[in-house]
Specification:
homodimer; 258 residues; Nucleoside Triphosphate Pyrophosphohydrolase; Arc Repressor Mutant, subunit A; seven-stranded mixed β-sheet; three-stranded antiparallel β-sheet; 6 helices; DNA-binding
Chain lengths: 258, 258
DNA sequence: TTAACATTGTGTACAGTGAACACAATAATT
DNA sequence: AATTATTGTGTTCACTGTACACAATGTTAA
């Protein structure tokens, strides 16, 4: 198989290309059907899933590495990608060891292997918010499958990846308080009820429709379009789009704090 | 010299003990005379200063490494130490290159050296708040001097350490909004005006005395003592101490967000 | 002894924000 | 034209933060 050759090359010579002991893990959040999803990869030979991650090239910025991983796993680029925490416990690799046998990385013919990829890694966590429909999940060489999972109904995860995900969710909820969210999660034109459902999904709680509208409009990052959206036997809501200049300004400066 | 022997050992064999390419930098903030200070080390042979930092042992948690650095440089332990960002630009090492000659790490007899310590480092930033008087700054083996600097009047700093410091200051100010600050910066007993001056110093702006008192007391982390402090020809303010249980609870849970 | 002064302790008034709630407008169906 | 579900807009109220007033107090100077 071609993949196996790539893996072998990575295991034997990867340490020349990449910085050892450092990895980047991306919590890629997609929004669909009022549900918040995380993109996960299934490992080749064991029943565990993991966050899309990667290594940092010897002369590459960590931010760039995170963007590269995102691009390689989703085909999406130029996205809001936020570093949120660095996980540096030496035991993190053993945390969720419910595996009955070791992944290919760590063994060969039943014998435990020692290569640079099986050693301790300090992982820098990033989260991204992507439009679900624009993403075509692609597994990496170590994985057989890549797909979305409901963030509240996750499969068995490797290492401390469950902890990384909750950390990321916490960071996203915090962001919601003082920075805009939605540009990369909604289509170009959207209604206020649609935006509200996104917020409710991220926060896992209901918001008051009227207060939400007032608040969002007062932020000044939305532009009401002359069109409305037909949604059935009810009043048609206005369509809105983000004022990208003001959106990015709010993203940079925040609006929760004086 | 003994130091030179230690340095030589570190340069030649350090990579066996420590994880390469990873460092920890601590922004240690001390408060004194209504001034916020940062602890800096002066490098041995060049006119630059740097943050106290260190490396992560092969089987050591990153958090532990940060605590160890703090302990080694200040003699203080069991402190509130907060990871705030990881700096991973490959060029960060060259950012403030106003050096006319390279530090000893990077050269020997005029020739540029290539050892593990002179390579690229990804640095995990921590900040700590310490009581100024309890600290006895101790230079590490690479430094000749260790002392406090006014955070608003810093000397020439190596690498991107100026950027790390502003990041840290930003993080501390954010913490002030939703977590208590002061337990490690003030003596056991203190007055409300003293606490207020600490807040004003961190935020670099004046606060209203009356509103500040109301706010602080409403948080429920202070205990008024029966004593007062004599401060001169004026009314004597009450002394307070932190209710450590409630303080730590507020530190954990925060109070700015519901 | 007492007046002056700087500083602290406590209280009040007002504006702005978020939360709870009321009602009219509207788009399709009956 | 009536029905129904949903949206757009407005009102009320409690709470928080901000601005400001005044009395209490510890020392110094007259």
């Amino acid at each position: 198989m071609k993949d196996n050759k790539v893996i072998h090359e990575l295991i034997t010579n990867g340490h020349l290309k990449y910085i050892p002991h450092i990895s980047v893990d991306c919590v890629i959040l997609g929004y669909h059907a009022n549900q918040l999803n995380v993109l996960l990869n299934k490992w080749k030979d064991v029943e565990v899933w993991s966050l899309p991650g990667g290594y940092v090239e010897r002369n590459e910025s960590v931010d760039t590495a995170a963007h590269r991983v995102l691009w390689e796993r989703t085909g999406v680029d130029k996205l809001f990608l936020q570093q949120f925490y660095t996980f540096g416990d030496p035991d993190r690799i053993n945390m969720n060891r419910r595996l009955n046998r070791l992944p290919v990385l760590f063994q060969e013919g039943g014998k435990e292997l020692h290569n640079w990829m099986a050693e301790r890694f300090i992982s820098i966590g990033y989260y991204a918010l992507v439009e679900y429909s624009k993403v075509s999940p692609r597994p990496d060489h170590l994985s057989v499958e890549s797909r979305w999972w409901d963030i509240h109904d996750l499969p068995a995860l490797i290492f401390d990846h469950d902890r990384i995900i909750s950390h990321a969710l916490h960071a996203v909820r915090l962001q919601l308080k003082y920075q805009p969210v939605g540009l990369s999660l909604l289509p170009e034109k959207f209604t206020l009820p649609e935006l509200q459902k996104l917020y409710e999904t991220i926060l896992s709680r209901k918001l008051d429709r009227r207060n939400f509208q007032k608040k969002m409009l007062s932020l000044g990052i939305l532009r009401r379009l002359p069109e409305r959206k037909t949604i059935g036997p009810h009043r048609s809501p206005f369509l809105y789009s983000f004022d990208k200049r003001k959106y990015n300004q709010a993203l940079k400066e925040g609006y929760g704090f004086a």
